[in-house]
Amino acid sequence: MYKISKLLGKSEDLRHIFIFLLLLQIVVFSPLLATGQGFSRAPGTAQDTAAAAPDSITLAAPKGDIETTIKYSAKDSIQFEVDRKVVHLYGDAKINYGTMSLEAAYIEIDYDKNTLTAASRTDSTGKEIGVPVFADGGQNYAAKNIAYNYKTKRGRISEVVTQQGEGFIHSAIVKRNEENEFFGLHNKYTTCNLEHPHFYINADRIKAIPNDKVLSGPFNLVIGDIPLPVGFLFGLFPTPMSKRASGIKVPSFGENSRGFYLNDIGYYFAWNDYMGTLIQGDIYSLGGYNIDASTDYVKRYAYRGRLGLTYDYFKNDEADVARARSTESGFELPPSRRTFWINWSHTPVRKPGRGTFSASVNAGSQLHQRLNYTNSANYLSPTFNSNVTYQKTIPNSPFSYTLKASQAQSTQTGVMNFVLPDLNFSMTTVSLYELFSDAPSTGKWYENFTVGYNLRARNEISNLVSARRLSGVNIIGETTGDTLALNLDNLQELWENGRRTADHNFSIGLGNYKLFRYFNFTPGVNYSEAWYDEKFSYSFNPDSQRVDVDTTNFGRVYQYSASASLNTTIYGTMYFKGKKIEAIRHLMRPSISYSYRPDFGDARFGLYQDVLTGIDLENRPIYQRLGRFRTGLPGTGLSSSLNFSIDNNLEMKVRSKADSAENKFEKISLIDNLRISSGYNFAAESFKLAPIRLSMNTQLFKIVGVTFSSTFDPYKVDAEGKRIDEYMFDFSKLKVARLTNANLNLRTSLNPEARRTENSLPSNLPDLGPDLDPLLPEYVDFKIPWTLSLDYTMYYTRGEGLQPDRFDNTFGINGSLSLTEKWKLTYNGTYNVTANNISYASINIYRDLHCWDMSIGWIPFGFQRGYNITINARSALLRDLRLTRNRSGFNRY
């Protein structure tokens, strides 16, 4: 036995001895080479093995026991036992043989027995180093001793820890066969990644099939080294596959107001790498059930989506429970109800010049989301909307179009509105000169004229039949509103109840011109026209003293207007000689615009009709102006308005604290925007001056956002509080206008990690699946020490006449606090100061138990009020290993 790395450096004689031994080794193994046994040099490798590196050797094999090249190296030394055909590797030893690799402090290669043996070593301090790590076929094993036969592909491992999916198996002895299965003796199965796990399943014998499952004999649960009388006669633990695969979904169990239940029992069909379907259901002991089928699909670089169908039978025979809930929460659970729901989301990858198809569908029975809510938003939402859209921009043209089908439904009234289809065709603003002429632009003023166009055609269908009536007018055939059932028998009625419209909008620009160097002048013309499938004509019936309404199938509503605007920008700067403030700059943007629109109530436009509606007590006829279309009518009366506004911005330049020594300054915004606006209608008979509106928004100390808006009426009121056509202007008494309403909002958000750029999700989140209890946490980040968001809103409205003034103010708070590295508290609440009550509140406490999670949620108010205490294993593999105690809207009684 010779230590090559030490002997080679002592004398020339020893180098010659080493070369001689290498030649002898070749002679000894030459018969094996001739018969195809043993090993041979790699192709292209010189026969002079003395040229090889002393600590890294590559040996290639012919067709024999050794199937491919064996590559090995060692940091310390390599020893050969020629007579025994054994190689010893010391110090950071590594072996690579095909798909297999082995690393350890010490490795022995026995070519005679075709075995690899690895072990750890202890250093001078007695610490164990170089624990063997074996990898083969994507599976990793860490153990104190490893023995592996590379011919039979069988192995025996002592004191091993292997990882199977999310689980870890600690075994005293493991044997591995040629099918890559291994059998363990005296095992601990856990999802805790510590050397001494917090909990584990104690099983005497375990069989593991990589990428498939782990099977065990009788087992019991051990938590904190305390054996519990909880276990079973056998165990089956699926392990995640490296690729998609079909399989059974293990259900969860529990109890609520619908009885004992098994939830999410089903089967997953992996059709291919791009599509999969999960069919699952819930079963309740009181007779209810739920069936859910969802399909996920994806096409790389094209689209992805999900289609889900749910059918639920809610059964509740306890009428007293329903009445109690109706009295206390205002929501009565029906004794039994069959509901369904459809979810479809389709998201495309947008590509230039190509059309995109997208979908967002949420529709179903009226009470489905309230009976099967998974979060507060679904329960509280009054409406659900659905859209299916195809959109395309035509290349090398100003045209684009959108074809959409939409649906909206109310969870409170059951009314459904459909738009089938909804077509939008538009042309972006283009130059009229370039549209009709190929000649290059010469800069003439008329070359600035532009035009834009938009068409929107809609077919609106609703199951709500509008009431046939007119405000203050008795009509023949007057009816009240009604709701049609959505079924095939009512298709004709639903179609007749629909409305067909087409809106055309033209925007004509007459250019932008500079006046007196500092003013921008912009004139413009607008024209729009709408087509409807209904137009009304009115006639008075003297016999019945009522108005008869006739309907035609087509009518058009058109309107036009002209406008012009003049605006400029004014700067003003005040300089200081102070040490902290250098200057204050005031920026003003005054704007004046004029618009003209004719009186479309005139009979020549045919949009309104002056109708005889009755006879008064003095036998005089009563006329009333009625619109001839259901919607889209322009306002009556001539409009000749002058509108004006002033936008203000105030900034201050102060010395920067970071660069005070270098006399550098920075800008601070005092007022982001302060806007004053009003208008004057020359054509109005009274109240020509419009209300004065004042609004402001800014940031205080860079952390407090302030938004303020208010409206002032410039006219007086009489003793009864009725508005009269007299101005309040009295500058001697500093009276300009009276406040009619005001709104103030203050908000701030404090977060020490707000500027953090990391977007990764925390690793301590359990996989709770798609159905989330609103009392359970969806996201917890223990890395953020604390957050605090405050919101204050004040609203004031002055009462008119006998109506009292209204004053409301609310205060909201939400945030989180990491009490320790493992404890976190989140809170959310809204307090109505005026009503002196709490509108909404929730408190959640989380505890990170390393491989376990604990959460406590409490909602003290509303139908959802209740609590939830849950302790569960973090791994999705053991998601049903949990303890839950809860009370909510469904099982509070």
From TrEMBL:
Entry GO terms, CC: cell outer membrane; transporter complex
Looking up Pfam families in the UniProt record yields: LptD_2
The source's superkingdom equals Bacteria
Indicate the segments forming the LPS-assembly protein LptD central domain, all copies. Answer: 214-715
Q: What is this protein called?
A: LPS-assembly protein LptD central domain-containing protein
Query: Organism source for this protein?
Result: Pontibacter ummariensis
